[in-house]
Description:
The structure holds 2 protein chains of 2 kinds. Chain A is mainly α. In chain A, 61% of the residues lie in helices and 0% in strands. In chain A, helix 6 (121-129) packs antiparallel against helix 8 (147-162). The two termini of chain A are 24 Å apart. By secondary structure, chain B is an all-alpha fold. Chain B has 3 helices and no strands. The longest helix of chain B is centred in the middle third of the chain and has 28 residues, at 12-39. The model of chain B has no long low-confidence stretch (mean pLDDT 86). The chains are: A mainly alpha, B mainly alpha. At the A-B interface, helix 4 of A face helix 1 and helix 3 of B.
Amino acid sequence: MSAFTKYVRTALEQAGREAQLDRSSRIESQHVLLAMSAQLDTPAARILLLAGLDHRALQEAFERERAQSLRAAGVSLEGFDLPQHEAIGAAGGVAPVTDLGTSVRTALERGVSGVRRNPRPEHLLLGILQAEHGTVPRALALAGIDRGELLLRVQQTLLKSAA
Amino acid sequence: MPAVEISGAREPADRLAAAVALRRLADQLEDAAVEEAMRAGWSWPEVAEALGVTRQAVHKKHAQRLIAAGVTLRRR
């Protein structure tokens, strides 16, 4: 198994846990982004960190986006009585999320599918960040992140590693 | 016009995001409510009727998760 394949497998496993914690039935690109930020010894995580996007910051950004989107429909999560159920949060005996949502498939197609030689984690990051609509770009915007600048940094990193 | 007023949303992007967030919330609410009901002794047919879906549909969607959570499920 190539290093990249191993990386993607690990990232998707971790993303599956993020999706589970997020009570999502599918792994979406936001979960993959969270997972990537947690794999600290990678250029992808370093790029995110440089932009102030460590795991915690990303989580907060996604929470903000969610709250804002719900508010737009007149729904506030404040005091919302969603009972804590043990299917989520238990340390063991819980089925992890494995289904890939469309956003992840798209990110993989965009970022990775076209790469003929030496795909890297940064390609996956590129695929995720290239989405112009949806949860990830909205959350980044709310966090005051210039997505264009972030994309540029990823592309520069890729060029350097190809040189 | 739908009863839910998307008042704060000025743009299609905001309204689309609101739809996505509401859909997710509805899923989470359903998951929690089904678990609550099953723990309280509801049957699959009762839960299905409350949700307006077939017993098979609700079983397919929820059984695995509930089993993993250790909920004792009634056979029928």
